[in-house]
Amino acid sequence: MAPRHTSKQHILDIMKQVGFQDRIPEAQRILPDEVDLDRDGPTLARLGLSLDRIVDELGGGPW
């Protein structure tokens, strides 16, 4: 099962990997230090990251 929490830094690293460098400053401002994928899903979506994409990048499988 995929992790449900990750660090803000890990999300920023994923954003760099997938080419979202232009959205990183906003992500740094609005994401909490510990990102809960369920709670913060809408914020991640607003940044252009789908939960499926994040889970794939974290090495997880389908929910």
Q: What would your notes on this structure say?
A:
- The model has no long low-confidence stretch (mean pLDDT 85).
- With 63 residues, the chain is mainly alpha-helical.
- The protein has one domain.
- It has a two-stranded antiparallel sheet.
- The chain contains 4 helices and 2 strands.
- Helices cover 48% and strands 10% of the residues.
- The chain is globular, with a radius of gyration of 10 Å.
In short:
The protein has 63 residues and is mostly helical. Helix content is 48%, strand content 10%. The chain has one domain (5-57).
Side by side, the strands of the main sheet go: 1-2
Radius of gyration: 10 Å
Overall geometry comes to: globular
Regions with little confidence, pLDDT below 50 for 5+ residues = none
Classify the helix fraction into a percent range.
Answer: 40-55%
Please, what is the average pLDDT? 85
State the oligomer: single chain
Number of helices: 4
How many structural domains does the protein architecture include? Answer: 1
C-alpha end-to-end distance: 7 Å
Number of strands: 2
Q: Which class of secondary structure composition applies to the elements?
A: mainly alpha
Largest sheet features: 2 strands, antiparallel
Hey, roughly how much beta strand do the residues contain? 5-15%
Spell out the helices and strands N to C: EHHEHH
